[in-house]
Amino acid sequence: IIIPAVGKKILTAEMIKPGAILINVGIRKENGKLKGDYDEKEVDPIA
């Protein structure tokens, strides 16, 4: 179980094991949109 709450994009696919549970509570702005503490395109298919 991973709960990032930093406010920066810190998690990458290399840090996540397949099937991991990710509870994202950190918020940051990117291109005018609210995002979490990880790269969704990389991590979502894994966790």
**Which term fits the overall shape?**
globular
Kindly estimate the percentage of residues that lie in beta strands according to DSSP.
5-15%
CA-atom Rg in angstroms:
10 Å
Poorly predicted runs? none
Structural write-up:
9% of the residues lie in helices and 13% in strands. By secondary structure, it is mainly beta. It has one domain. It has a two-stranded antiparallel ribbon. The radius of gyration is 10 Å and the shape is globular. The chain starts with 27 loop residues before the first strand and ends with a helix. The mean pLDDT is 90. Pfam families: THF_DHG_CYH_C. GO terms for molecular function: hydrolase activity; methylenetetrahydrofolate dehydrogenase (NADP+) activity.
Helix and strand arrangement:
Blueprint: E1 28-30, E2 33-35, H1 40-43
Antiparallel strand pairs: 1-2
Short description:
This protein is mainly beta. It contains one helix and two strands; from the N terminus they run ββα.
Comma- or semicolon-separated keywords:
single chain; 47 residues; two-stranded antiparallel ribbon; 1 helix; 9% helix; hydrolase activity; hydrolase; methylenetetrahydrofolate dehydrogenase (NADP+) activity
